[in-house]
């Protein structure tokens, strides 16, 4: 068993398969899951694990060169907006409908237990060198 890092074997394996330019949708429990991408559902109960915990954990494992979120997050979920803007200074904001369209091209979907609206972000993988 791994001693540190992400312990969920499904998530650890999926992250290891990602390459430069691949996208990962990290979403709340209410976001529609697109057909096609691999899905790792971490939701245990409402709020567990939180969106913040999952994003924080992923950022220790991934190189992220870009992030996209719904512009509605600023008004509907200021806590998530603050988290995203702090973690991704060049955060791209699009409409929620556009985010759902872009999510269809994700290689991986990570579903959190977050129960607050618009706690969703699409991450574009970078390279570590």
Q: Label the structural class.
A: alpha/beta
Poorly predicted sequence stretches spanning 5 or more consecutive residues: none
Q: What is the first-to-last residue Cα distance? A: 28 Å
- So how many helices? 5
Strand content: 15-25%
Radius of gyration: 13 Å
Whole-number mean pLDDT: 95
Number of strands: 6
User: How is the largest sheet built, in terms of strand order?
Assistant: 2-5-1-6-3-4
* Largest β sheet strand count, sense and barrel closure: 6 strands, mixed
Can you give the helix content as a percent range? Answer: 25-40%
Spatial shape: globular
Give the helices and strands as they follow along the chain.
HEEHEHHEHEE
**Oligomer type:** single chain
Descriptors for this entry?
alpha/beta, globular
Verbal overview:
It is a single chain. The chain contains 5 helices and 6 strands, in the order αββαβααβαββ. The chain has a 6-stranded mixed β-sheet. It is of the alpha/beta class and 129 residues long. The radius of gyration is 13 Å and the shape is globular. 32% of the residues lie in helices and 22% in strands. It has helices at 9-16, 51-61, 73-76, 78-87, 96-103, and strands spanning 23-27, 38-41, 64-70, 92-94, 108-111, 121-125.
Put the structure in a nutshell.
Helix content is 32%, strand content 22%. It has five helices and six strands. It has a six-stranded mixed beta sheet.
């Amino acid at each position: 068993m791994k001693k540190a890092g992400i312990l969920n074997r499904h998530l650890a394996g999926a992250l290891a398969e990602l390459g430069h330019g691949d996208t990962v949708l990290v979403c709340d429990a209410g976001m529609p899951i697109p057909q096609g991408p691999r899905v790792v559902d971490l939701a245990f109960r409402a709020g567990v694990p939180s969106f913040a915990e999952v994003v924080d954990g992923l950022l220790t494992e991934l190189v992220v060169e870009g992030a996209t979120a719904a512009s509605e997050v600023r008004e509907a979920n200021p806590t998530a907006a603050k988290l995203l803007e702090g973690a991704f200074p060049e955060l791209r904001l699009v409409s929620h409908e556009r985010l759902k369209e872009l999510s269809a091209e994700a290689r991986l979907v990570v579903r959190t237990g977050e129960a607050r609206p618009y706690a969703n972000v699409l991450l574009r993988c970078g390279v570590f060198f």
